[in-house]
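Supplementary Note 3. Input sequence used for the single-chain structure prediction.
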Amino acid sequence: MRAGQDEPIRGVSARRVGRRRALAAGLLAAAMALTACTSGGDKPSSWQGGGDGDGGEKAPKAAATISEPAADAKDVPASTGITFTTTEAQETDVELKDAAGKVVDGTLAADGKSWLPSSALEYGQTYTATVTATGDDGKPATATSTFTTMAKPAKQIRVTSFLGDNQVVGVAMPLIVKFGRAIPEDYRDDIQRRMTVTAKPAQEGIWHWVSPTEVRYRPKTFWKANSTVSYKVQAGGLPLGGGWYGRSDLSVDVKIGPSFVMTVDNRTKRMTVTRDGKVVKTIPVSLGKKSTPSSSGTMVVIEKLRHTVFDTMEELGPEDGYRTEIDYAQRLTWGGEFIHAAPWSEGVQGRTNVSHGCVNVSMKEGNWLFANTRIGDPITVKGTERKLQNGNGWTDWNMSWDEYVKGSALPYEPPAADTTADTTPDAGTPSVEPTP
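The predicted structure, written as discrete structure tokens, is reproduced below.
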């Protein structure tokens, strides 16, 4: 947007100050003439010293200037915030009103230099922003800017969330936001500044771009069990490159369930299950055989299928392919790795790997796992011949924190040590058929 040309406003207009100073100068000249014509030395009662020449009333110490949107600006994006500067202000208030005088809700930025409406402004409407700065003298100084938003754009980008309101998910669930069109690199920082996450209790985390159309958020460590998480994307009316604009804002409220963590060790052929930090079960497993090993790494439960059919006939052909009915299937990768019941391998579970890459368990244990897991619960597999490839599923936890931070479009700023602040779609179709 264009930079504003407003000068600091100190509570009294420059024209008014000029008239007062001219009047004061005339009174002073008259007083000097009277003194020369009389024998007394007293000043006339109409002359008052001190102050700044306007009857003793001093201008406010504080000052405010609005830089964006500039006064009388036209075609302002509906996503606009109010950017301003103040000097010697002990308190700053920002108010935005529409043409009918209705106050627009919004939030002052933590740095005190900008203010953002709670939602996108209406298209083709006139608004007036007022910034009031008050110094330690208690006197307010104001700056105003009246502007008009642009007409509704023809090219708009849809923003969607994988999760819905009130959904309960596991402690490893990434927050997934998708865009209907690729966001150019030069605009990703703009949209990321409009993406906020509020967790209670507070938890450190960051956004990570996995592709031009998808960005995810994860905390530094697993979400705290039973916490609440809200995230908001203020994309409505935001310029996103090439004449495209965000279609609308997005907000989602979810809850994190108990901590349910699965760890599989290929050496022992056992799965250890912990709930809220306590071991609750040890389950014999059979992993992928040498020709089709399971992936070692940290994965997340992506979807749960009580009953399904694994069909690789088209992919592998009639000689190597298979079509098998499966119970209690929980997807871990797009490449086809699942946790699932495998009654045909129960005799070797805990001793030998015979699967095509999946984590095989018994019907009884598959039923138990299926009843206790949630989308977003983590599973870590250790000691197999193949490493998990990033991107093959929700592999956000397969990266170190330092690696994850590199995917942010904004520089990472660790929170203050004593901080108490709480703020800090379709998942896609697998490209390969599942393998049991």
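The two ends are 55 Å apart (CA to CA). Residues 14-37 form the longest helix (24 residues).
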